[in-house]
Sequence to fold (301 residues):
Amino acid sequence: MAKDLAIGKRLKIDKAKQNMLGAVAIASLILGVSLVFAVYFLRYIKFNSAVISEKNKAIQGYSDAIRDIGVCKKPSGNVYNSAELQQCDPNDPELLNNVPGTLRYNVITDLSQNEALESVGRTGLPICYDSSTKEKLSFSAILERYRYATSDTAKENYLNMIGMCSALRVIPDALPSSANPLALGASLNKIFQLSQFDPEGITPGSTDESSLPGIGSLSVNLEIESSAETTMRVLNNLEKSIREINIRSARIERAVGMDVLKVEATASAYYTEPVTLNEHVETVRGDGSIETDAGLTEEAI
Fold:
């Protein structure tokens, strides 16, 4: 009887050990799986936090650029939301009252009224002058007319006047945004007309490489043969022209006993080349590293 009790106790002890080992094994398995999932979720959270952080940086950068340029009203928060971006109207001149100190505000209200730029400008367009006083219309005067305009066509005309009548027109006149040989030919023709010289023909050459970054050049071959007074008048007007024309080489001949001065010159006229904007894409990897791809480009004129 005692032997049977001892055997029963031994069996119960062995069974308890087996149950304990099974429970420990199951607990270890659960703990191991929990640790694996914990590490996975920690890495997942860290990865998503890095992605969200980089996205927030990009959004903040775009918002700062939009706010600093002044094409939208200031955002209600730190960044622009979709509704605020959809309400942006850069062509609305009334927007300037809400974006003081921005690049657009400073350019339109200050630089566009610069007397130094205005003093070197060409003869203004008739629409830029008041028909009664014959004085040039200021930005505020054109804006006032825009406010009281009753039709969309009239408002559009006044918006165009703000750009055309600005002193800033001197900048694109002096350094156009494209090669445009026809425009160069028209500029040379106007210089010849002012100089009372009638050329046989005007043929601007092809584009050349320029040593100046972001600046392109057009070659120009000039041949002027007229009286000494007329030839010198053409050269003086070329020098005074708002369009930058650089004479690289020249050959001057004067006929003996005759009032004839001949000039053969090779010159260059300049323009701004299209700007290439590089938009880079940042890829956030699972190990926390960030890879930058600058393969996307966009041309802006």
About this structure: The beta strands are 207-208, 215-226, 245-254, 261-272, 275-284, 290-300. The mean pLDDT is 78.
